């Protein structure tokens, strides 16, 4: 055996912990997925679960939430909620967002508006932009026992806008138009359109001809 091969094999054995590190496993999963080696991707993703790495639980949750033909995973809201909840316990912002949506719609769990608001607000506090936008919509239009509250809706939208989220610019613009604040609304639509958001471009073309 050549000395170079021996050293290589030795290093591989010594670096077992490095290979089994959940971050490295997750990166391997991503590479296999991008190469369309889906059987290997699923095996590696499964190995990265339950290792204190919330991105793995969140990723598996998404596969069950949307279903994945590539990985052979059927849509299963109950399993999706379980994985999102595990990731949320580890502080994953997007997991709280999906958890909130599922409480809001009663997907895989009993509909609970209070739990939905708690999860969405937690996600928003952790910087999840889509959670801010979702909360804005809840208070703009009202939901279940929650009455519309334009001030709260505006606050959530503005917080999302500060983080550079174009859809919230359009949503706030519509809210402001209903309050006859047309100049502010127009500026938001233009800014959202400049950022390439098709919803704002289409809305602007249909309204401001």
What does this protein look like?
Helices cover 74% and strands 0% of the residues. With 209 residues, the protein is mainly alpha-helical. Helix 6 (77-89) runs antiparallel to helix 7 and helix 7 runs antiparallel to helix 8 (113-125). The longest helix has 13 residues, at 22-34. It is globular and about 55 Å long. The N and C termini lie far apart (77 Å). Residues 9-18 have low confidence and may be disordered.
Rounded radius of gyration (Å): 22 Å
The end-to-end span amounts to 77 Å
Classify the secondary structure makeup into a structural class.
mainly alpha
Form type:
globular
The succession of helices and strands, N to C, reads HHHHHHHHHHHHH
On the 0 to 100 scale, the average pLDDT is 90
Helix content: over 70%
Number of strands: 0
Largest sheet: none
| Contiguous runs where pLDDT drops below 50 for at least 5 residues | 9-18
Helical stretch tally: 13
Hey, roughly how much beta strand do the residues contain?
under 5%
Report a brief summary of the structure.
This protein has 209 residues and is an all-alpha fold. The chain has helices spanning 3-14, 16-20, 22-34, 38-47, 54-66, 77-89, 93-105, 113-125, 129-141, 150-162, 166-178, 182-194, 198-207.
